[in-house]
TrEMBL record, chains A, B, C, D:
Ranges for domain Semialdehyde dehydrogenase NAD-binding: 5-141
Name recorded for this polypeptide: N-acetyl-gamma-glutamyl-phosphate reductase
A GO BP entry: L-arginine biosynthetic process
GO molecular function, one term: NAD binding
Source organism (scientific name): Caldithrix abyssi DSM 13497
Species classification: Bacteria, Pseudomonadati, Calditrichota, Calditrichia, Calditrichales
InterPro entries hit by this protein: AGPR, AGPR_AS, AGPR_dimerisation_dom, AGPR_type-1, LysY, NAD(P)-bd_dom_sf, Semialdehyde_DH_NAD-bd
Keywords associated with the record: Amino-acid biosynthesis, Cytoplasm, Lysine biosynthesis, NADP, Oxidoreductase
Pathway where it operates: Amino-acid biosynthesis
Gene that specifies this protein: argC
SMART domains recorded: Semialdhyde_dh (SM00859)
Active site: C149
Signal sequence annotation: none
Domain of life of the source: Bacteria
Length: 348, 348, 348, 348
């Protein structure tokens, strides 16, 4: 089969860079164009130094975009909904990595983003980008909206419990520890190394927008509340989500294990990590850095019926570009793991 | 007044090293002896390199201990209760930094430590070492048991709320992010740099022993449950505690501010940190490294009545040696801040 | 062609782990056995957590080794020379990653390692493992001895200059900054996280053994002296070598560029990195982490004729396992880049 | 004696912040004013969070400066020479922490800074700020120019050797490893955490301006050449200087020890660090973080007569504010260690 032609709008950011890294090694893909207004005309490796010697691609402008089979959008908040008409004329399929089309409900969007959505009519046409929840819709989808990185970690950690109705709906506390790459590639006072280095900063104790995605995806028979907090720690890539839920019936760790197995045993990118001994008993972000894995583990406090579920991802991979490429593979009937097989490094 | 003579049993560990650092500069103190079986006869600066040129003190053996005014105990778990008779003959006053005498209730001790206490008769004689809660008893105390580092951060974060009966007693989730110095100075597989570096490790999702201290100190009219989890992150010194509690009545952030002010305004080592803007809106461990401060801040999620309280300490200072020296000052009627005035560094 | 069967003796260490990671994805290779006395019978992923879900291989004992096409040796210093007879009966080809067979001259070995070599007769049969210098001999080699990580970085930085006789032979100062993985996977006082974290430690100002390899490989018409020093910094993987040499004739940066190009332009794993602007003007270890690249750059101080040559590698890859797999590919007439194409991550 | 009134021009930077931290605890000093155009009117603790609760001082504007006993200048390059007339009317004594008045020779200034000096007439009136070299002149000095941080580390490492004429004058290679705080508090692309984190960046292989200071201070009977290179590593505070010199006569390590002792034994802030065993055999920046110490150690390679001298300082303390306060103490006949006694932390 001839190569699938893809272009990336907004390719100078971190998610765009990861897409370039992955797609350059994807045997079924030809990268046609990568846009950047800021770095127009430069070799992509000037911005993404790990691609030095891997490609001679240069950044083009947004207006230079030619028709292609699929367009990845890695644009600042609001741009996708503004230009979606134009983009959908360029490509029959679109994967948007921004937050613009994640929430199905326009009211929720307005409430969480403080402005009304420009294209509420299209919200229903975007499939929320977590394959483990929406694989089937993806196979025929035209539009996919990749999930937020923190939301991805939280949702995959809790999906089996809420789908099965095992957790109390309004007592889930979710804390994420995140790296500095989540804040993007633009320097600012908070990202200045002497300031950001070694910090353990509660940057969003409440009202983090990803809570809206979690609540959307984990509300089944009853609406769940995601009590969400985010802390920035000394790390560049990675998210560790620690979710504290209270079970609404008595379960053993073995019961819980079976439930998670039934959901994830056949998933290529979700690993249940729960060892009795050794150094690596639970998920750790650094072990999935550069990979598309989401590792999930848990521990039950029998005396209080609190279940602590821990998940780890690379925010730029399973939390962004890797998730998008996995969705891309599904959309095109390709093996899901294609171009996503890097196992990660140890030690690191 | 003539110097107060003190000795430190178990001075080669991290807490012992901090005590040496603080007491060497304490104008009212003369350090008489510092014991270490492992480093017997060596200069203390061989083990604590920051003391190079500050003292010619050498480690002696436990059996060499001479009578002194006050004895600090920094011994492995279980040693203090085993030798307390002997130690109390050496010194009229004792400050124990181990966990041996933190829990007043022998049953709680047996339940959390998996063995019955050797001297349940003495538990009642030890004052729990957080000055902000037990200053008055300290003034006349003979024995003080310093609090656990994580417990100190959690208790100071939540004390005003539980004392005032404002938080639901069985829904408090407390997550601490901790540095590697908490695990002590003995190398092991888990502390090996290539393994420990950059890790975000959920090492104790449930059943952390410090929960017992928190429940003891925060249970007033009704018993509270501390749903406690600990995550090891890339840091050497420091604890950030993030406590999620649900208020049992409607309060504004201003109301909560007033309550915290009423408890902590006159405390020399508790700072309420809550800024509307700037980079340092909430407590951060690195800003209190080397200091005896416990910074406390909070954010209210009005829509769910969840209050997130954040506190930061240096586990070796306010969480151990600094707290002990503060108690020491109180016991001797000295200004509480003596030898504890280092403000911390920035940037760091 | 049927798979090449390989086994790894000493597979629980960091170099062994990298070999496993690389060879598991090598299309022409079947990993037959991996030995570890310490972890006998355990799944390899218990020791190398990045391989979780990638293989069901378990560690076997040294005596269980079966005949195979090629044997990789990752054993402690001295073991290879002790058992070489036995190993050469197991496999027709051997790649030794230890230091045992790196020095061709038994006297040099005795001088640098403080003991006489057990098999001086074999030293001549081992090809020194840097493909850029010894590719041709490798094609027909039976035995290859992988180069030391620091030596690899230094040699590739300076090879063109000394081969061309352009640098003063006894004034080369080479400083390497190294990560903690160089010291192996056994915990010790120096590798304890609170001690090793953030350290900038001059651990080997003089007499580092890798100097012997550098002098062996860079002495052509006249003997060169490697004035070598090593500093441990806050890093797990990676080496940055900074070599200061004095040119023995007047050259421009352009002349030097041409010389390096003439040596490395066609090398798949050596990149000349020298940009006029941007953030990545010179080699950086983190950009080659997990890759087999050696990036080389330089800057000339025209006023003093000092040339500073900078090179960066991943000590476990181009400095160990990657270099060995590259040699393996050459020995078997395979494309050199096979199983070595990971481009590295950014940001990281 | 009544307090010495001091003001700080340019107090929002890192050096200014350290001056504030030190002077707030200096018993003989009253801080009168601290200027910042950018943060005019704000509390100093908004910019220097470690001063929270330590002072209610607010930043004023440059034009608000009132007469005081001594003025510290922490202004951007060029500002001091431009306004020196005005400043010298405000205060009878000035300590300038910028590079403006470090070089005595206007030609050297023009050569290294690419522009001619505005006040060559004053260069001779500024005492170069390293007390160990210029203590006597400081006692009566009106103007002091603090030394560059890297220059300070290099000069103190090599001073005894060059003063005694023991090192070859044109073969000294000096490599510094530096932290991110050296680049100041303004965010930029290079200081962005995901970029700067974990980097080992050769940012100035040649032509670093501090070389000019080193050559000025270490040239005695003959002009010495400082072959200087700087590498940025994962660290916020600190400099490790590794100096490689070739002795011009045969000396033993004991001889060298005696020479260093003769220069530094009575220095309050220079420690000779050279241990036969233990973890801390040589200087390490993290052990002097927050202190005014310069630790100096060395190792001799007898076979080549290369002496490697290693020194460590905190660039913001002995390399800037601490050095300035030490000079301040000398100028006023105060004990040199006043307000500079913090011993540093361990572990850290």
């Amino acid at each position: 089969m001839s190569a699938i032609t893809v272009s990336i709008a907004g390719a100078s950011g971190y998610a765009g860079g990861e897409l370039l890294r992955l797609l350059l090694f994807h045997p079924d893909v030809r990268i046609q164009q990568a846009t950047s207004e800021r770095h127009f005309g430069q070799f992509v490796h000037k911005v993404h130094p790990n691609l030095r010697g891997q490609t001679t691609l240069k950044f083009c402008g947004m207006d230079d975009l030619q028709p292609c089979d699929l367009l990845f959008l890695c644009l600042p908040h609001g741009e996708a909904q503004k230009r979606i008409e134009h983009f959908s004329q360029i490509a029959p399929r679109i994967i948007d990595l921004s937050a613009d089309f994640r929430l199905q409900n326009p009211d929720a969007y307005a409430r969480w983003y403080g402005q009304s959505h420009l294209r509420p009519d299209l919200l229903g046409q975007f499939v929320y980008g977590i394959p483990e929840l929406h694989r089937q819709q993806m196979q025929t989808a035209r539009f996919i909206s990749s999930a937020g990185c923190n939301a991805t970690a939280a949702i995959l950690a809790l999906y089996p419990l809420f789908k099965e109705g095992l957790a109390q709906a309004n007592q889930a506390i979710i804390e994420v520890k995140v790296g500095s790459s989540e804040a993007g590639n633009r320097p600012n006072e908070a990202s200045h190394h002497p300031v950001r280095h070694g910090c353990v900063r509660s940057f969003k104790p409440t009202r983090h927008r990803h809570a809206a995605e979690i609540e959307q995806e984990l509300s089944f028979n009853e609406a769940m509340t995601a009590h969400f907090s985010a802390t920035a720690i000394e790390m560049v890539r990675g998210v560790l989500a620690t979710a504290h839920v209270f079970l609404n019936r008595k379960l053993s760790e073995k019961d819980i294990w079976k439930i998670y197995r039934s959901y994830y045993a056949s998933e290529p990118f979700v690993r249940i990590v729960k060892e009795r001994d050794g150094l690596y008993r639970y998920p750790e972000p650094k072990l999935v850095a550069g990979t598309n894995f989401c590792d999930v583990g848990f521990e039950l406090d029998g005396s209080t019926n609190r279940l602590v579920v821990i998940s780890a991802i690379d925010n730029l991979m399973k939390g962004a570009a890797g998730q998008a490429v996995q969705a891309f593979n599904i959309m095109h009937g390709l093996p899901e793991t294609r171009a996503l097989q890097f196992p990660g490094l140890h030690p690191v």
